[in-house]
Amino acid sequence: MKRILENNPLENEAIHIIRETVAQFEKPVLLFSGGKDSITLVRLAQKAFYPATIPFPLMHIDTGHNFPETIEFRDRLVQELGLELIVRNVQDNIDSGRVMEEKGKYASRNILQTETLLDAIEEFGFDACIGGARRDEEKARAKERVFSVRDDFGQWDEKNQRPEVFDMLNGNIDHGQNVRVFPISNWTELDVWSYIEKEDIEIPSIYFAHKRPVFERDGLIWSAFDDYVYREDDEQVYEKIVRFRTVGDMSCTAAVESNAFTISDVVREIRSSRISERGARIDDKRSEAAMEKRKQQGYF
Amino acid sequence: MEVLKIATAGSVDDGKSTLIGRILYDTKSLTDDKLEAIEKKSQSRGYDYLDFSLATDGLVAEREQGITIDVAHIYFSTDNRSYIIADTPGHVEYTRNMVTGASTSQASVILVDARNGVIEQTKRHFFINNLLRVKDIIVAVNKMDLVDFDESKFDRIRSDVEKLAAQANYKNQSITFIPVSALKGDNVVYRSENTPWYRGKTLMEHFESIENQDVYETADARFPVQAVIRPKQADYHDYRAYAGKLYGNDLSVGDEVTILPSMTSTKIKEIQFFGSTYETAKRGSSLTLSLEDDVNVSRGDTIVRSESIPRSGKELNATICWMDRNPMRLASRYELQHGTNKIMAKIKDIKSVLEVQSNQQSHSVDNLVLNDIGTVSMQLNKTLFFDSYAKNKSTGCFILIDKQTNTTAGVGFIE
User: Which CATH superfamily is domain B222-305 in?
Assistant: First the structure.
């Protein structure tokens, strides 16, 4: 039997934040994408309230362009842990004509998620949305608070953020406002992978090296598995051993060449990587301020 | 892995962002795609050097104006440990942002421009680090290349800061002086050939040598209850335990404890975390406690060792940093958040405001404006159990929330 409970600073901080969220808000929800960060959040939430079950639902804003492995994984996880899962589909807003699908070579549904997310927040009256964003991912995210207040349009007022001192979190909000909560703000990509390894957390298979039909564009490798990703006639499909470093919408997430077949391979690969995690995310490459703009509009 | 948090402070143009960029570059923490972006941008601006501040100024307005507006957090690691650097802005809202950055940091870098020496901002930064009791201060004398690496300029700044330190009231602070050029890289990660007279460590060598202490130093154990865990599953029908984070010192099974504010005493029955039970919990850990007796405990209560009960009262004297555009006014009421506890406080007296230039306290005033640091006495609507900040950081600080705007308007350090 383990006798001494050691301080694991990042884990303890995250659990502290999740507990504060449940204590200070009436209707929290965990935004679940099926990616490694939100899977890590689920484990942290389990730990925060154990042996009680996680006291909030998971919500997936489904672009309809997900990797099938992720969806399968999501449904199994929810069932095993006895959690409530809410799914809201970007497709519904496209069908009703409320949002327009992007066209052309770089079309992605990533940005369309914002509208669906804001609708769902209003529909369920969520006052706190827990997300797996990390400050090391992107420089606008580096400016983000742990409790980030959004107005009823979901907008981020980046120039007027509340100070956060010590670990005291102020969850007071006005009616109609909501808070985005980021428990793993201070984790790096490597921290997340090391934690997944140490905790033996299961993750979707697309994070590991596998053979996949792909094509190349702008120096990035894209999945040619199905028709979600637009492909020109002259873009040749061939097979390659790849894995995904982030799991977003298929249309904006490129694969990387990799021989990381196990979790310890992945940790080693990340440790020596010379390219940042979001280097394979085309949504950030649109402009230098792409993330900041999306956040102002209510993106997570 | 160990994590060391470091705050940076300096005036506009002292080169903070450049210094951080330099650290990232020389420790090879900038990935190829980020480096490429910086090279491109620097070129397009016509610079003949790499503008590392582009790595940290994350907002459009910051890049346009070439200034840092809000605290940014930068991450990198060595084989030894992980680092988090809070890059705090040097301009107008410096106090508010510095306090924010320094409150979670074990060490602070204060940048001084070798050409300008110690200025009002330096004094303020030094004072805030002292007030927050940040253990390790590094005075980085920057732009040494612009003063021909002149040792006498460096010595002058050292002796000026040492004079400030002699007046300060937190004596356990360690202060280290390092001559650097962030732009050229001297003594940041690599030892400089331009400062043969300097025998100390480089900035990075110093970081690596800092002993990793919790921001909340060793003190009496304090366990503010965040939540009561009562599972709805049938197997746990009678289960009742208290979730929170432990500050100050370790707690062990069998310890005699007192619940505040009810002052009921009992013993720790079990220390649990995710299905495992433990004999002892180290300070800093998030855990779940159960108690021997069926006592009434709820969120906002604090569990302490019976031998070390904190002070209590309905009045409080504290030093307050005001962080809101609306001034703190005499006789106003604020919500006071102390750990997980929230009560109401009324401002009875603003006894003095710090005048940084002279390091003197002025006499009584009617309000504190944004970035003011003052000593205040408050009346509370309920009895609060608290420690002095000097004795116990976790129970010695609080925030004041403006109930009309819900914003965090000030932070207080209890006397």
Answer: Translation factors (2.40.30.10)
